[in-house]
Inverse folding.
């Protein structure tokens, strides 16, 4: 049984690994193939800072909250393993700042030590009247994706550097299941007006004295359109741009100035930080994550497609919960095809 | 006395901060720093510089609290300014953990550090051998940057600094009107203070930039303090040991203890071993006295004996010492007026 995975960002690689780990022993004929136009370090996941944090306002989607929790708990369990450093996984504490009192987030009991900021802490951030402190996780794409790739390679998964233009292209010739993890470019495989780019731009600096993440929020301008500072293991990410509908992946001088000025105002010490890079990326934004099966008729064949895309600015945050859900959908497909060799149960 | 000449002996965090305070309270003073060692070779350079107070058994708590408060406030302002990275001052969050219930649930400094609270059950799961914990955010003074920043500010005020081993305070009485003794462990010999004793500390400074949180065992022996470029792993408290040579067995032991609290440290690179002698005393000696020899008087202000808590109280004791220097100046002016009568 051949399974084609389209996309090699965090979603594609982790979904592939989940399926491989859960079904390889049950299905020795299972052969996974990953097709992607971009591999690490050139994916959207590589550009993201890597902070585990869902959006602050619940989109009303309990399922996503559960997937976020599943991801956090899974990563927390890996924290003390020898793999943690190689995965780019570590604990980090920090601040979320608001200009008016926000409702507590859906993830307040998922992270560690969530609390409101004291008046003295707020003195650090003039102009912000409320805030949260909590300990969360960093999962740096530039380390995590190579780690996932190594695990997949060890398990015999094959990689193909190819821009896939249609499901048809990968679903012939014995491929029964296609995993669509193509992120921003899912719309090219199947039109989806709900999928829109949420363009982001970041500046990378050397500021190793910054040990906390600081995310500001302006409820009027929307998520990530307010300065944020996220320290990583090699550099610190400065950001604060979210442009809905903007497809440009070029760095904008105007955005650079806006990010630099607003972050230096937030943390005056950054004025002395050395700039070491800049990057723009497109968050694959959607009102909700598309994680579902679809049977697609391709000529005289039927292929099962599992869609897993539209994770916006929280891909790393939600990836494992989604990968497990994708694996469950895969299990269902196998049961329907009676591939698992278990006594036939009721059709799902 | 137009321009009192003040010699500050010692160029660790105590000497430099005291000299700076004197230039602030007495702009007309001419201040000179004399020391046989400057950064990066002082005891202060070995320390992690964490603002977590050490308790002095014989100093009243309210005085220790005031010293800590003044130090914290001073550094907090710097950490929030454009100078923060140059001065090496930054905020750091983390945990102090205990295997058995801590003596005090709320230490005297709990309302000075930021966000002090008991650790949650979920947080304690990270430390299976510990049952209690405190979470808070405090400040760290990275050395050498902080000492270099103090030196730079001193130079800007016109303060001179000389490498010189002072074997006897009386050496200075001809050139200086007042001597400020910030010699740390050196005071044992210099002023014969038998109450001052070394507590040897060995630490490792490692490259592990993914460690963002401090972890300190409440017993004070095992700690992980992330700094700007390196993480300080500690440590030891060897009372009465004068040895400045690193011990290989101790290095292994520190590393193992720290890895058991933070397993990811196994991947730490580039381990540097350092040793410092904490200049320990039952109380910090911030005191003035007038030495007398053959009719000559020499006013001395002492500011030493900070043990494990130098960084935590340095600014507070420096300010107090500067006030004592003011008192010395007033006394000198009074006696010289009397002499004129």
């Amino acid at each position: 049984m051949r399974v084609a995975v389209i996309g090699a960002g965090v979603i594609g690689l982790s979904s592939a690994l989940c399926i491989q780990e859960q079904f390889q022993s049950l299905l020795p004929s299972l052969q996974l193939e990953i097709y992607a136009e971009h591999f690490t370090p050139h994916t959207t996941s590589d550009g993201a800072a890597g902070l585990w944090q869902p959006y602050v306002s619940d989109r009303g989607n309990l399922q996503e909250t559960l997937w976020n929790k599943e991801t956090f708990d899974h990563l927390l369990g890996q924290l003390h393993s020898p793999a943690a450093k190689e995965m780019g996984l570590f604990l980090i504490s920090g601040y979320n700042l608001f200009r008016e009192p926000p409702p507590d987030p859906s993830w307040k009991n998922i992270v560690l030590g969530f609390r409101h900021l004291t008046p003295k802490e707020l003195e650090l951030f003039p102009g912000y009247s409320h805030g949260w402190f909590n300990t969360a996780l960093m999962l740096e794409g530039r380390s995590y994706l190579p780690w996932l790739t190594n695990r997949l390679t060890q398990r015999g998964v094959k990689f193909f550097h190819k821009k896939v233009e249609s499901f048809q292209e990968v679903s012939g010739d014995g491929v029964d299941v296609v995993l669509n993890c193509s992120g921003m470019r899912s719309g090219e495989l199947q039109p989806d007006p709900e999928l829109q780019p949420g363009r982001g731009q970041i500046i990378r600096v050397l500021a190793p004295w910054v040990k906390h993440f600081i995310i500001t929020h302006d409820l009027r301008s929307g998520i990530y359109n307010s300065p944020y500072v996220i320290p990583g293991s090699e550099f610190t990410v400065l950001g604060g741009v979210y442009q809905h509908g903007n497809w440009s992946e070029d760095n904008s001088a105007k955005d650079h100035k806006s990010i630099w000025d607003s972050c230096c105002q937030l943390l005056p010490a950054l004025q002395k930080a050395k700039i070491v890079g800049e990057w723009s990326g497109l968050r694959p934004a959607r009102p909700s994550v598309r994680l579902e099966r679809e049977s697609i008729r391709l000529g005289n064949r039927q292929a099962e497609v599992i869609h897993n895309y539209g994770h916006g600015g929280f891909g790393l945050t939600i990836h494992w919960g989604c990968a497990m859900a994708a694996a469950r959908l895969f299990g269902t497909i196998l049961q329907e095809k009676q591939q698992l060799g278990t006594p036939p149960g009721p059709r799902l | 006395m137009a321009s009192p000449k003040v010699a500050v002996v010692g160029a660790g965090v105590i000497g430099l901060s005291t000299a700076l305070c004197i230039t602030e309270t007495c702009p007309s003073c001419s201040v000179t720093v004399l020391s046989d060692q400057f950064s990066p070779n002082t005891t202060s350079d070995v320390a992690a510089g964490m603002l977590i107070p050490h308790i002095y058994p014989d100093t009243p708590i309210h005085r220790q609290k005031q010293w800590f408060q003044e130090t914290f406030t001073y550094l907090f302002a710097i950490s929030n300014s454009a100078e923060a990275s140059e001065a090496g001052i930054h905020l750091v969050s983390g945990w102090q953990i205990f295997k058995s219930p801590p003596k005090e649930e709320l230490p005297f400094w709990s309302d000075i550090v930021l966000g002090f609270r008991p650790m949650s059950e979920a947080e304690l799961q990270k430390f299976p051998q510990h049952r209690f914990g405190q979470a808070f955010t405090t400040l760290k003074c990275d050395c050498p940057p902080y000492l270099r920043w103090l030196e730079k500010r001193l130079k800007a005020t016109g303060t001179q600094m000389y490498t010189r081993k002072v074997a006897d305070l009386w050496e200075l009485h001809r050139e200086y009107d007042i001597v400020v003794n910030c010699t740390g462990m050196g005071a044992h010999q210099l002023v014969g203070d038998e109450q001052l004793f070394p507590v040897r500390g060995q630490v490792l400074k490692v490259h592990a930039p993914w460690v963002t949180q401090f972890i300190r065992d409440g017993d004070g022996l095992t700690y992980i303090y992330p700094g700007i470029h390196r993480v300080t792993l500690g440590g030891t408290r060897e009372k009465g040991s004068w040895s400045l040579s690193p011990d290989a067995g101790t290095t292994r032991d520190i590393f193992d203890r720290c890895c058991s609290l933070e397993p990811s440290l196994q991947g730490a690179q580039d381990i540097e071993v350092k040793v410092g002698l904490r200049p320990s005393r039952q109380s910090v000696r911030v005191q003035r006295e007038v030495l007398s020899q053959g009719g000559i008087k020499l006013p001395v202000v002492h500011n030493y004996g900070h043990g494990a808590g130098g960084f935590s109280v340095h600014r507070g004791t420096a300010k107090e010492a500067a006030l004592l220097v003011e008192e010395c100046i007033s006394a000198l002016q009074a006696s010289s007026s009397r002499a004129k009568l």
